[in-house]
Amino acid sequence: MCYHSYLDITLHIFTCYCSFIINYIIRHIISQKVTHQFLLSLNVTCLSFQESEDGRTYFLKIHVPWEVLATYADVLKIKVPFKANDIPDKKEVPLSWLCTPYRLPEHVMQPEPDYFTATFDKSKIDFFLIEDKETFFPPSTRSRIVYYILSRCSYSKEDKDKKGIKRLLNNGTYVAAFPLHDCRYWTKSIDANCESERYALYKYWARFSSFYKEQPLNLVRKYYGEKIGIYFAWLGFYTEMLSYAAVVGLLCFIYGLATFDENVWSKEICNETIGGQIIMCPLCDKKCGYWKLSTTCSSSWQSYLFDNTATLFFAIFMGIWVTLFLEFWKRRQARLEYEWDLVDMEEEQQQMQLRPEYEIKCTHRRLNQVTQMEPYLPLTSKCARSVLSGATVLFWISLIFACIIAVIVYRLAVFAAFAGIMKDSPTNNMDLIGNLITPQFATSVTASCLNFIIIMVLNFLYEHVAIKITDMEVPRTHVEYENKLTVKMFLFQFVNYYSSCFYVAFFKGKFVGYPGDYSYMFGKWRNEECEPGGCLIELTTQLVIVMVGKQVWGNIQEALVPWLRNWWVSRSARSHPESLYSRWEQDHDLQSFSQLGLFYEYLEMVIQFGFITLFVASFPLAPLLALMNNILEVRVDAWKFTTQFRRPVAAKAHSIGVWDEILNMIAVFSVVTNAFIVAFTSDMIPRLVYKYAYHLDTESTMEGYINNSLSVFNISEIPEKNRPEDGENPDWFYSSNITTCRYRDYRYPPGHEKQYTYTMQFWHIFAAKFAFIIIMEEDNIRPKIHLFENLESEGAKKSKY
């Protein structure tokens, strides 16, 4: 059976189903009255009432006739075709046959002809290309019109505020409202006259075996609407651009492997006559003993893979890449806006975007002196709503910072405990993992787990709070509502996900002090030092754990959880023929597409975009990991939309909305963060200053750098509260007459007239770091300005024609 034609229903069915609970007689009677009044006010025909096979669920199928469709299409200024496009297609691109393996069939890429369109006018119906009134409006347009009607119909004569399907869903009168899929996704419809677009999407788009092929964006747009189509267009373009960054990042990593043997400072650390003779000061109070620098041999070699000359090149390259990505996406977005006839979408959709909640709460008007229009105004002032919203957001951001500080305090408090517990641990004798399981590693892993739990709890709480705050602000349009909610949620997620990386990159090991005068948080916990291999390798580890963990967890939530739920609900009915297992029952068993469905899809990708841009200087392989994830993400999202979710109500959108501004903000911020990572987190600048200014030989080499980068402290001057307890020092310490220890800093040695104060080399390095930041900012900003000017001039030239 073709479910585009049920009885008198043609092309599209919009289904509402209500839950019938016989035990609650009073509620049932009230719901019957409400439902009856709601259906009377719909002003639609072809209503059909169906009972499910289990006898507990009732389906109400609604069809809007031509007269109603034409009336609302006129009111909402919907564009419809009036003439076939007679502009000849562009000529074939040379060597286009090379792309044949990546192409899809033409009927999939172009599911409908191209037309010239105009705003629908019911009084000039002969002007438009109407071959069949029942198929003139596509399914996406019909569902939008039906939902517009449902969202504004009143269900109470006494209270005019009681209106809209959304309110009926919230109070339990109806369980859900959704448009139907056109057929089963794994097989074509039996009726030859019924379209099988869902089957085509599944066959050519939603299978992982098609990961190397282009996306049928026009078919996605036709079936799901422009809003979902623009998301997949952006995701595909982002994945394509990631391939270039992934190749360059992989080459930078290969460069680190190829020059592995040229790592002079790591050789000095591993040399028993150099690193084996350097005694380092304790890393914590009481529970940490003296240690030899040669014990950090393996971590030093690992650090070199990501802290070499290629790191600087890749940081500059990513600054240019992110600019090209954003500017080329603007071009791609403008092209889609033209091809999908969305150029003046804002004016066309102004009325349709108006939220019913706004219309209910805003009852009085005020004349606009400029436009001479009288828009509805909310009962509460905009200032009061903004102050309330800002105060609530500030409270939650303060709560996040409090949680961050709590995690930092945890790291500081347990490091000494882990140092005492793991000193005699049996894992120390294991060849493979003995050098990896250290107090620093245990502290980082447990702190990351604690941070992850906090993130999940706060995410659950803040999502509901953000929705409540946005509802209180009474945004005028759906776009304004989504933008306000997006900004609140992203600000929270930004702090939540990136806080640990920011701490390791810019705070850990930067305010430690020196053995005679250590710095303490709240006067109690000694500030944490970097791992022996440096803070960059720890930032790399933190980035990999958070980024990969989030992507894996996200894919499990997106794919596995909906599949398990749907399998459990429909496990006994999937094999039934459609005569017994109807289309509306099949869609009823699928997961609902929530109001924030696309928001979480965008959020996942934008958070990933932040990881590969804000901290990419510490991990050149981040774009490669993101590319591998996104290749899977495109097909997982396609599979999820096609097979696991009910068909969402189609919505129009001419851009990715406020996410565009968020991406630009991240891009600008990433140049700053990468410059500071190279300057202050990595050891590149100190090594270059030593090589070209402080090396004693005539030839510039890195020999002697390790000894030069470590300061000396007299052990006898270490305060009692900082000294190791009895039994904490290794045996070799007592068998030798050791009077000094070394620490990472540039300070004068004991006995000098300026002992333990910064040397001139420290200030030279400090000046070189800031000079590098200024130069890097200039080198990244200038290409952006020139690129923007070139794109503007090119656009101006095209506009003349």
Keywords:
801 residues; two-stranded antiparallel sheet; alpha+beta; single chain; disordered N terminus; disordered C terminus; 4-stranded antiparallel beta sheet
Radius of gyration: 32 Å
Note the total helix count. 26
Largest sheet: 4 strands, antiparallel
Low-confidence stretches: 1-13, 17-30, 376-381, 426-434, 785-801
Query: Major sheet: order of its strands?
Result: 4-5-3-8
Overall shape: elongated
- Give the percentage of residues in beta strands: 5-15%
Q: Let me know the average pLDDT.
A: 77
Total beta-strand segments: 18
The CA-CA distance between the termini, in Å, is 51 Å
Membrane topology: Multi-pass membrane protein
GO molecular function: chloride channel activity; protein dimerization activity
Family: Belongs to the anoctamin family.
Main location: membrane
Give your account of this protein's structure.
- With 801 residues, the chain is an alpha+beta fold.
- The chain has a four-stranded antiparallel beta sheet, covered by helices on one side. A two-stranded antiparallel sheet has the order 1-2. It has a two-stranded antiparallel sheet with strand order 6-7.
- β1 and β2 form a beta hairpin.
- α12 (309-339) runs parallel beside α26 (760-799) and α17 runs parallel beside α20 (597-614).
- It is elongated and about 100 Å long.
- The model is unreliable at 1-13, 17-30, 376-381, 426-434 and 785-801 (pLDDT under 50).
